[in-house]
Amino acid sequence: MDSLRTGLYGNIFRPDNFIFGQNDAGNNWAKGHYTEGAELVDSVLDVVRKEAENCDCLQVCHSLGGGTGSGMGTLLISKTREEYLDQMMLTFSVFQSPKVSDTVVEPYNATLSVHQLVENADECMVLDNEALYDICFRTPNPSCKSANRYSFFHYKIYNIYIQSIAGPMILWLNGVTLLTVGDLNHLISTTMSGVTCCLRFPGQLNSDLRKLAVNLIPFPRLHFFMVGFAPLTSRGSQQYCALTIPELTQQMWDSKNMMCAADPRHGRYLTASAMFRGKMSTKEVDEQMINVQNKNSSYFVGWIPNNVKSSVFDIPPTGLSMSSTFMGNSTSIEEMFRWVSEQFTVMFRRKAFLHWYPGEGMDEMEFTEAESNMNDLVSEYQQHQDAVTNEVEEEEYDEEVEEN
């Protein structure tokens, strides 16, 4: 917190809005939700009340792997939801990932958090470190001193060291600095800016977060979105990008540009939204969206017509002439929830590390309820994905009947 206050953006925040605690949550969801977090939440809510009067919506940035972001984060979301029932609750949630993990109890923390997010959040932008790392390693980095400027070449060597002592985390490879947390935060910030630009700038085909929710959420519980951004460039090299609407569209829908570890090709899009920024023709944007749907019709459910929404905002991001932000409600995101659920089940059946949670005032029944809710969520996504298969089978059957 001190480094934030004394840093480049410290003057953006009011000094009274910094809330400090004496202890951390120790990677324990229960500690963040019931003990340490509960002691601080009233002070935090007082600050939220003062700021919420001037806000269009409520946004929460948190991670689900540790104790504070998951435990206290979901407590704050729950308490805020009680006070502001008519306000949109938008979260940017960093999930645990299969390859990038540093806490053994992450499956517990993530499952307990999803249990809360299903009930108390309106829109959840799903992010995870693995996908962010992969994007950074694939992006050309002109500042890299290696002969090969594409970091993914080195990533395949699996010889990566992480330094997190006395400063920001830095990835080193054979003496060459490749990646910092600033690079990951840059990726997330571009997406956050794109998603919320509808609140700040006028546009030709404008929308807001409530309209987004209406267009993107066909069923109340299925409000977890895959997000992406185009163009993906390293910091400092934006001016070298030649941008066109077809190029932005191609990048935006590319599975490798998604910021969570789920492959949209393994599921179907229920709905999607594309937000373009910069001076461009709305006619060309609409044509590109229609082309995407026509060429990839098998990746969209057939029982929701016109399920891709597009918006155009005149003000481009700093350093770019145009950009696009993608939000997709895809059934493939159940891969992520399924993986977390499987890890949770393996540990919970053996009661591994479970004793740390009841010690902070939590009941074991909450684990069972959270596990059940997570499994129900996976089943719902799978059900709507299978509905496409049933629809195709019915069409094939009808064709056979007509032929006979």
TrEMBL record:
<dbReference type="GO" id="GO:0003924">
    <property type="term" value="F:GTPase activity"/>
</dbReference>
<dbReference type="InterPro" id="IPR017975">
    <property type="entry name" value="Tubulin_CS"/>
</dbReference>
<comment type="similarity">
    <text>Belongs to the tubulin family.</text>
</comment>
<feature type="region of interest" description="Disordered">
    <location>
        <begin position="382"/>
        <end position="404"/>
    </location>
</feature>
<keyword id="KW-0206">Cytoskeleton</keyword>
<protein>
    <recommendedName>
        <fullName>Tubulin beta chain</fullName>
    </recommendedName>
</protein>
<dbReference type="GO" id="GO:0005874">
    <property type="term" value="C:microtubule"/>
</dbReference>
<dbReference type="Pfam" id="PF00091">
    <property type="entry name" value="Tubulin"/>
</dbReference>
<dbReference type="InterPro" id="IPR000217">
    <property type="entry name" value="Tubulin"/>
</dbReference>
<dbReference type="InterPro" id="IPR037103">
    <property type="entry name" value="Tubulin/FtsZ-like_C"/>
</dbReference>
<dbReference type="InterPro" id="IPR023123">
    <property type="entry name" value="Tubulin_C"/>
</dbReference>
<keyword id="KW-0963">Cytoplasm</keyword>
<dbReference type="GO" id="GO:0007017">
    <property type="term" value="P:microtubule-based process"/>
</dbReference>
<feature type="domain" description="Tubulin/FtsZ GTPase">
    <location>
        <begin position="3"/>
        <end position="203"/>
    </location>
</feature>
<keyword id="KW-0342">GTP-binding</keyword>
<dbReference type="InterPro" id="IPR036525">
    <property type="entry name" value="Tubulin/FtsZ_GTPase_sf"/>
</dbReference>
<feature type="compositionally biased region" description="Acidic residues">
    <location>
        <begin position="391"/>
        <end position="404"/>
    </location>
</feature>
<comment type="function">
    <text>Tubulin is the major constituent of microtubules, a cylinder consisting of laterally associated linear protofilaments composed of alpha- and beta-tubulin heterodimers. Microtubules grow by the addition of GTP-tubulin dimers to the microtubule end, where a stabilizing cap forms. Below the cap, tubulin dimers are in GDP-bound state, owing to GTPase activity of alpha-tubulin.</text>
</comment>
<dbReference type="GO" id="GO:0005200">
    <property type="term" value="F:structural constituent of cytoskeleton"/>
</dbReference>
<keyword id="KW-0547">Nucleotide-binding</keyword>
<feature type="domain" description="Tubulin/FtsZ 2-layer sandwich">
    <location>
        <begin position="205"/>
        <end position="342"/>
    </location>
</feature>
<dbReference type="Pfam" id="PF03953">
    <property type="entry name" value="Tubulin_C"/>
</dbReference>
<dbReference type="InterPro" id="IPR008280">
    <property type="entry name" value="Tub_FtsZ_C"/>
</dbReference>
<dbReference type="InterPro" id="IPR018316">
    <property type="entry name" value="Tubulin/FtsZ_2-layer-sand-dom"/>
</dbReference>
<dbReference type="GO" id="GO:0005525">
    <property type="term" value="F:GTP binding"/>
</dbReference>
<dbReference type="InterPro" id="IPR002453">
    <property type="entry name" value="Beta_tubulin"/>
</dbReference>
<dbReference type="InterPro" id="IPR003008">
    <property type="entry name" value="Tubulin_FtsZ_GTPase"/>
</dbReference>
<keyword id="KW-0493">Microtubule</keyword>
<comment type="subunit">
    <text>Dimer of alpha and beta chains. A typical microtubule is a hollow water-filled tube with an outer diameter of 25 nm and an inner diameter of 15 nM. Alpha-beta heterodimers associate head-to-tail to form protofilaments running lengthwise along the microtubule wall with the beta-tubulin subunit facing the microtubule plus end conferring a structural polarity. Microtubules usually have 13 protofilaments but different protofilament numbers can be found in some organisms and specialized cells.</text>
</comment>
